[in-house]
Amino acid sequence: MAEKAYAAVLTEERHFDYRDVDIPEIGPDEGLLRMEAAGLCGTDYEQFDGHFAGTVYGTLPMTPGHEILGWIDRLGANAAKRWGVKEGDRVIVETSIPCGDCIPCQDDRPIFCDENMGYGIRLGFDRIPHLWGGYASHLYLHPKSRLHKVPDDIPTDAMSLFNPLSNAVRWAAVKPNLKAGQSIVIEGPGQRGLLSVVVARELGAEKIIVTGTNADENRLKLARQFGATATINVEKEDPVERVHELTDGRKVDVVLDVSAGSTEPILQGIEMVRKGGNFVVAGVKTHNALNDFYTDKLIFNEISMLGVLSSDWTDTAKAVEILKNHWQELKVLCTHSYPIGEAEKAVRVLGREIEDGGDPVHIYLDTTIAP
Ligand SMILES: [Zn+2]
Ligand SMILES: [Zn+2]
Questions:
Q1: Quick one: which H or E segment has residue 15?
Q2: Is the pLDDT of residue 126 over 60?
Q3: If you average pLDDT over residues 279-302, what whole number do you get?
Q4: Are residues 208 and 281 both part of a single domain?
Q5: Which of 209, 199, 278, 203 is nearest to 245 (CA)?
Q6: Are 169 and 315 in contact (CB under 8 A)?
Q7: What is the pLDDT of residue 54?
Q8: CA of residue 244 to ligand 1 center, whole Å
Q9: How far is the CA of 316 from the centre of ligand 1 (A)?
Q10: Cα–Cα distances in Å, from 192 out to 29, 83, 266, 311, 368?
């Protein structure tokens, strides 16, 4: 066993250092994870680029990596009982570490826990024992961490999809209460949009319509491959008219916006959802405000508009079930992987600052390779 762990540390905006860290002593209630992979999403780029400066997410120095997959390396006796795992087990670790006592925790909203604990997002590198993020060889397992045991036979790349897939479960199905036989429009074919197609298909949705732009041709093709019944290039066709045609004027039960930046899909989505339907808003628009939005449309059509940010325990459990059955099919989304020593490159490819051979759909760090 290595005497030292190593971690990539974001020391300031847009700069990583690599540090050796002493492996901590593990008491009866805690554990140590040997990292296998850290999945990346838009949050990783926003952290790197300084978008969170001045907020609870902006702590520096910080080891990023909140989509955590690894093997139990050391484990206290009480922790083993509590988590139902043993040394050597392969697990995924929930990002949030809820205190269990505050109002949001009591209210079953652990992601809003007052204690502000969260791997790779809120806990800075300076806090002992330093191993609080996934861009590292090891992760400290706090007594209040939450783990899911996962199968050994799903390859690293496919397994690293668990976090965006958990989001897809919550955003496309759980929150809007999508049912078999219903219809959904998914605006934006990023990794979460494409995985939402799979979730909707598994649930038995009858019509699954995905929108994208000229730059998304490859992704729209993937959407059809995953079971989208129609795709719309919004730069070539009017998406609202097209959805009305595809549904014989009935519109759809659910619209999920997972497109980034542009607010146009919000205005268009309102015209696509049926009376009494649900509109899930998940695509971050950064500082773009919505103009010409008439809230009366929500009132007269009884449309529910729901904001979503992440996912939680039951969504992750469902995502693991989907991966067990469909990982071979979903592997195609895993386009790029990098060792920890190339964390900066990985994040910049993710943010489309640089290119590295093809469209980056899902990127993960292979944390088993030393920098
Ligand atoms: Zn993420
Ligand atoms: Zn709490």
A1: strand 15-22
A2: yes
A3: 92
A4: yes
A5: 209
A6: yes
A7: 87
A8: 33
A9: 13
A10: 35, 28, 17, 12, 26
Ligand closest to CA 284: 1
Look at the block and give the residue holding tokens 């093997």: 71
State the sign of the Cα–Cα–Cα–Cα dihedral 286, 291, 296, 302: negative
Please say whether the beta carbons of 319 and 349 come within 8 A.
no
pTM of the model: 0.95
Instruction: Using alpha carbons, select from 75, 3, 68 the residue that is nearest to residue 40.
Output: 68
169 within a domain of the structure (yes/no): no
Going by C-alpha positions, the residue among 37, 44, 43 that lies closest to residue 68 is 37
Domain check: are 151 and 292 in the same one? no
135 lies in which domain range?
4-162+312-366
Query: Phi and psi (nearest 5°) for 366?
Result: -85, 100
> Looking at residue 70, what is its pLDDT?
98
What pLDDT shows up at residue 287? Answer: 80
Q: Which residue type is seen at 35?
A: M
Residue range 80-105: mean pLDDT, rounded: 96
Closest ligand to C-alpha of residue 362 is: 1
Task: State the Cα–Cα distance between residues 126 and 128, nearest whole angstrom.
Answer: 6
